[in-house]
Amino acid sequence: MTDERPPPHPTEAAPTASAPPVTVVGVKLTPTGRTLACDPGKLAATLRVGDRVVVDHDDGATSVGTVAVAAAARAAAPPMPRVLRVADARDLARLDADARRAAEALAFARERAKARGLPIKIFRAELLGGGARATFTFAAEQRVDFRELVRDLASRVHARVEMRQVGVRDEAKMIGGIGSCGRELCCSTFLPKFAPVSIKMAKNQNLALNPTKVSGQCGRLKCCLVYEEANYVEAAKRLPRAGKRVTTPEGVGRVGDVDVLRERVRVYFEDQPPKVFAASDVKLLAPPGEPPRGGGPEGPPPAPDDVPPAGS
Q1: According to the model, what pLDDT value does residue 3 have?
Q2: What contacts 24+ positions apart, CB below 8 Å, involve 302-311?
Q3: What is the CATH number of domain 92-166?
Q4: pTM > 0.85
Q5: Which pLDDT score, from 0 to 100, does residue 127 have?
Q6: Spans of all domains in the chain
């Protein structure tokens, strides 16, 4: 009985490869919401980032949003929401009134969900279309029958009620917050969509596999693990892998730890304490009869003169 769709905001127009560039302005309806591609019309030259504007949607409803991206020529597929005008005092007063009604509706929805014993977390309520439609966004671990709750809410807000279920990552994106780095969450500030993240990325970056260290506010792996993954993978190709036997200026040992960013290797010996060497000072120990290879996993390619002639 749940509706597992994206967060309750109008969908941004998806650009197509053949769509000609049009003048587009980016508008956010909520601070942590997605940026909508809107048609600025005659206001393109006057709109500035931070301006409050009234946006007209396809269904005839209007919303007050904030310009997040200045007008520019971009590829976008019409139809797009239109910017009708810069919001005036009357528009802002209506926005404040709707926000107060939404806060009251959210408190009531939480109270009724608790009274009915529903295992859901309702964290957002929005009044759209001038109060004709109310959208409640919630997170839940399982499918929930909320038909009785919808009746309770409809009798209270006197509007058509829509319930939308989102995942934990979308919940964190919509609520926002501060990450362990001290900055606002990436997903609620600039990430347009979620990229797949795996625990292998944390291993490639030599991070401690402690759930409290590699997990974000949503309880899933941090999105920022993706940012430097390609750099770590590429740099690791120039270094010997842990466990490989190598020759060093201090003798033969076995690789214990690898510092990918500094390109340094900690080598353990049988008859002396471990020592750290630059990757350029470490050579993979080749099988008997072969010369030592370079620091990379497979060693450097042979010089042209060493390439045997064809057919030999």
Answers
A1: 45
A2: none
A3: 3.30.300
A4: no
A5: 85
A6: 22-87, 92-166, 245-298
